[in-house]
Amino acid sequence: MMNNNETGNCQCGLISYSFDKKKVISAHHCHCKDCQRATGSGKATILFIAKKYIEINGDLKFYESKGSSGSHIRRGFCPNCGSGVLSYANEISHILYLKAGTLNDSSWLTIDSNFFTKSANDWNAPDESIKCFEGNPGIMSGIKTLLKSF
Ligand SMILES: [Zn+2]
Ligand SMILES: [Zn+2]
Predict the structure, then answer these.
(1) CA of 84, nearest ligand number
(2) Global model pTM greater than 0.85
């Protein structure tokens, strides 16, 4: 049988996690300015996964800010090394947005779409071969209904 267990951790290892990669809902590049600041790069690459399917070890510290659609985004990072590990919207807190760069092996990952292409930088231009959303893809509207089923 194939082993679908995937693991990841922050830079220092205080925070680690594991999940079944078959449970990943979708994956996205987010070019919003908050993701640029939080990652110190052109975008964040995130995996949507239901909280019940991921086991997290260690206590993340959270920074909360208001998203463009009015939701409250909580960004979780390691209190020791500062690595951003995951975030979620308080209003849909059963879905986590796991930062792909913290995966031990992300070779299996395919990205479904780009968020917030309007704030993308020329030096990190969105991949136009996949679906592009100018701003928020509707986490608070259409996708919210879809995500409720997970
Ligand atoms: Zn750490
Ligand atoms: Zn973002």
Answers:
(1) 1
(2) yes
